[in-house]
Amino acid sequence: MEGNTLPLHVSSWMEGDSGVVPGGPGSGFEVFPNPSSGILYIRRAKAGAAVEAAIELLGINGQVVQRKEMGGGEWMTSMDTKGLAPGAYVVRIEAQDGQVSNHKILLQ
């Protein structure tokens, strides 16, 4: 692995009518709206979860486009995606307890 590039395989979109993308069973986070054209929100799926998390927005090639930290006391945070090229991205969330979830999103 070189620099900030991670191998990434995107196969299908997980998009419901609500535009909220859960990270799969037990991920503990939701990312919305999907598709997005501006502010992307990341919120904890369970109230009271107090674990810190590192959040990365990855391009389709696996390169980190944005990075931020979510404090243990925060239940929701956001990322500004304005100015990024339209297309497929992945929000990768790694919680301090070791759980990792990937959320496939589409930027318009």
Supply the number of helical segments: 0
Q: Please describe the biggest sheet, giving its number of strands, its sense, and whether it closes into a barrel.
A: 4 strands, antiparallel
**Helix content estimate:** under 10%
Strand content: 35-45%
The parts where pLDDT drops under 50 for at least 5 residues are 5-18
Q: What is the domain total for the residues? A: 1
> Overall pLDDT, averaged?
80
Shape descriptor reads: globular
Structural class: mainly beta
Cα-to-Cα separation, first versus last residue: 29 Å
Counting DSSP E segments of at least 2 residues, the number of strands comes to 8
**Taking strands numbered 1, 2, ... along the chain, how are they ordered across the largest sheet?**
1-2-3-6
In the CATH hierarchy, the third-tier topology is known as Immunoglobulin-like
**What are the secondary-structure elements, in order, as H or E?**
EEEEEEEE
CATH homology superfamily name: Purple acid phosphatase-like, N-terminal
Gyration radius (Cα, Å) is 13 Å
Q: What is the architecture at the second tier of CATH? A: Sandwich
CATH first level: which class? Mainly Beta
